[in-house]
Amino acid sequence: MNPLDFLIPVAHAQAAGAAPAAPSMMSTLLFPILLIVIMYFLMIRPQMKRQKDHRAMLDKLAKGDEVITSGGIAGTVAAIGESFVTVEVANGVQLRVQRAAIANVLPKGTLKSV
């Protein structure tokens, strides 16, 4: 008996049997495809829906609407341009903000009650 047999196991021939089958290409690609589908439904689709809703809100924006900007400034829409909106925050104080900076349209009368 060789002294290395205690450190390195001796390979013994196995009985003739079927070799383990290699994973098919379909099962190999199934996990990444499933992961992409899950990410689409959990992350991408809801974000696209929010963008669509925000775009629809900006399209319906009209003079006199009460809005809050993404910076937290509340005011009334005084004028609407192609890419800018003039928001009146107090009597005689008007700010020009980008149209995309409008975060929410408030119900009528909200600013008067504050």
UniProtKB/TrEMBL annotation:
<protein>
    <recommendedName>
        <fullName>Sec translocon accessory complex subunit YajC</fullName>
    </recommendedName>
</protein>
<keyword id="KW-0653">Protein transport</keyword>
<comment type="similarity">
    <text>Belongs to the YajC family.</text>
</comment>
<keyword id="KW-0811">Translocation</keyword>
<keyword id="KW-0812">Transmembrane</keyword>
<keyword id="KW-0472">Membrane</keyword>
<dbReference type="InterPro" id="IPR003849">
    <property type="entry name" value="Preprotein_translocase_YajC"/>
</dbReference>
<keyword id="KW-1133">Transmembrane helix</keyword>
<dbReference type="Pfam" id="PF02699">
    <property type="entry name" value="YajC"/>
</dbReference>
<keyword id="KW-1003">Cell membrane</keyword>
<feature type="transmembrane region" description="Helical">
    <location>
        <begin position="25"/>
        <end position="44"/>
    </location>
</feature>
<keyword id="KW-0813">Transport</keyword>
<dbReference type="GO" id="GO:0015031">
    <property type="term" value="P:protein transport"/>
</dbReference>
<dbReference type="GO" id="GO:0005886">
    <property type="term" value="C:plasma membrane"/>
</dbReference>
